[in-house]
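S1.2 Input.
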Amino acid sequence: MAVQNDGKILLTGLEFEEYSSPTYFIIRYNAGGSPDEGFGDKGTILKTLDRDIEINGIVIQPDGKIIIGGVYSIFSGPQFLLIRYLPDGTLDPSFGEGGIAKISYPQSTRSYDINSVVLQKDGKIIIAGVTGVMGYDEFLTVARINTDGSLDHSFGNEGAAVTKFGNDALRAYSAIIQSDGKIVAVGSNNYGNAYNRPLVARYLPNGVLDSTFGTNGLQSTILDYSVPHAATLQPDGKIIAVGFNPTTFVILRYIGGDAILPITYNKFTATQTKEYITLNWQTTTELNNKYFAVERSSNTVNYTSVAQVSSAATGAAIHDYAYTDKLPITGTNYYRLKQVDKDGKYSYSKTVSINYIKPGSVQLYPNPAKDKLTIKGLNASNTSSIAVLDIQGKQLLKFTAKAAIYSFSIGSLAPGTYMVRVKDDKGTAVEKFVKQ
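S1.3 Output.
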């Protein structure tokens, strides 16, 4: 199950019929519990692949795309399976092959299961589960998948961290990502006199076991037949694992070290108000925070600090902050918050972006354009007169619009460079574009 930011609820799983391959489903409900009829077929997706499958995980991307994960069975051995849908319930053609990614790793073992799917801040996908031969050599496996559905070979050993411990059978059932990018996998350890004992493994962001955690990155608890299947992080960085044994529920808490920095964000937004951009963010926990540095970039690579905002630093309470950027960059502005605590440690928030249009100017896109051109930044409260001119200033096309955004056909124009002139009661703006 997963819950969208707007409160809508997503469920996924399998539907079985005798003598046929299982069908996976995704159902989306409105926040009130009624089916969301704008999703899939009246709120439901039902799809059968050409082999047996399992579906064990679901995650929602910040852009609303939906990823489900599990196993795809073939004669040579199962493969990891990831399927991505657009927010409206159609398969995402930019992911894998037509929205479906089937991944084998490593070649010397038989892929067996995905039990958890989580997202990094950069959009890459972390999957956790097990590889090996079921009932014999089973290895806890964490892999990283690129945003296009391909294996990220820069992670672990050619895309995956396969953890072995003597003759253990290790499995991961849940994965979580700390604010510093470290990955925690929670599962079970079964070997010798250890019968399904709780196991926690922590990896560095590059897929190498974190030697500062437990014993060389692993922590096994002597509690037989108690397997944790879900995990989460407390604001102070401690790890909560929840599972069961034959007679009762089991909740375990582990010291997470200093990996989690003392800040929890509830929201971070950017909006344009006339000629300025206003940033608003809200925190729900501030344990040791000193200040926020507001950083801006035009390319998501090079960031510059543009302001410093003092923190309330009062523990578990809601605090709202705001900053107004009076000198934004024309075009796309990317903002992030660098949270700095009293010990000098720091972490970054998610990145938010906004396309800034300077009042009195307009933007044309796409540019170059082939069949259609869109103008953004028009004065929606008044009628704008729009003209397309050739490079000598001869008028070729003319339109009127009373909207902030207006699109029109340029199919009749020959390839070349043209100008768009926009007039309204505030003045005149001229921008060039290229017709392909």
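S1.4 Remarks. The mean pLDDT is 85.
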